[in-house]
Amino acid sequence: MKTRMLARPSGLALIAAAVLTLGACASLAPYGPQMGQGGQGYSEAPIESNRYRVTYNGVGDPGPVADYALLRAAELTLDRGYDWFEVTQRWTDGRPDPRGGVRPSVSIGAGSARYGGYSTSGVGVGLGLNLTGPGATSTTLEVVMGRGTKPDSPYAYDARDVTRALGWR
Questions:
Q1: Model pTM?
Q2: Which of helix, strand or coil describes residue 102?
Q3: Rounded to whole angstroms, how far apart are CA atoms 132 and 56?
Q4: Is residue 38 a contact partner of residue 123, using CB atoms and an 8 Å limit?
Q5: Nearest 5°: phi and psi at 149?
Q6: DSSP H or E stretch at residue 77
Q7: Which of 34, 109, 127, 139 has the most other CB atoms within 10 Å of its CB?
Q8: Cα–Cα distance between 11 and 37 in angstroms, integer?
Q9: Positions of E strands within 33-146
Q10: CA distance 138 to 40
């Protein structure tokens, strides 16, 4: 009778599996409204009849989060019967490290001590892994909405053009 020996996973293989599992948990949720405080998604607050503050909260790269904030501003502009919007203020909070994900770090330490007639010294080397993955990020836009011809400003957007360009996501 033959017996099979099953290979036990190495420590490195277990660490790699854990990193992949954690990385899969920390990703940008599908575009949509924010479902509860601290969750991913958009929210908006009226300031005046044609002025809103639009926020998109997400996880990971700030680029897609900023795009989703612009998309929501464009949708809101069209929903309110306007043609264009101008970003008057922009905030990006909680920017994660652009490298994101797992980042190894190496540290070296040295020390010495003296007690009575004895002395000692030592050197240590450590390896650290950031297993938290990409961090939370948010983009907040304060926008003014208008009708007719879009102003000639680098901060003004045609709402229909923005929804066509970003709405596929």
A1: 0.64
A2: coil
A3: 21
A4: no
A5: -75, 130
A6: helix 62-79
A7: 139
A8: 38
A9: 41-48, 51-59, 84-93, 104-115, 118-129, 136-146
A10: 9
Question: What is the C-alpha to C-alpha distance for residues 26 and 36, in angstroms, rounded to an integer?
Answer: 17
Query: What angle do helix axes 159-166 and 62-79 make, rounded to 10 degrees?
Result: 130
Kindly report, residue by residue over 68-107, the tens digit of the pLDDT. 999 999 999 999 999 999 999 999 874 433 333 444 556 6
How many other CB atoms are there within 10 angstroms of residue 36's CB atom?
A: 7
Q: Which amino acid is at 37?
A: Q
Per-residue pLDDT tens over the stretch 32-42: 999 888 889 99
Q: Which amino acid is at 46?
A: P
Beta bridge partners of 27: none
Tokens standing for residue 145 = 């909405």
Q: Are 26 and 59 in contact (CB under 8 A)?
A: yes
CB-count exposure of residue 165 (10 Å: 0-12, 13-18, 19+): middle
* Rounded Cα–Cα distance for residues 50 and 149 (Å): 16
Residue recorded with tokens 């450590």: 126
Residue type, 85: F
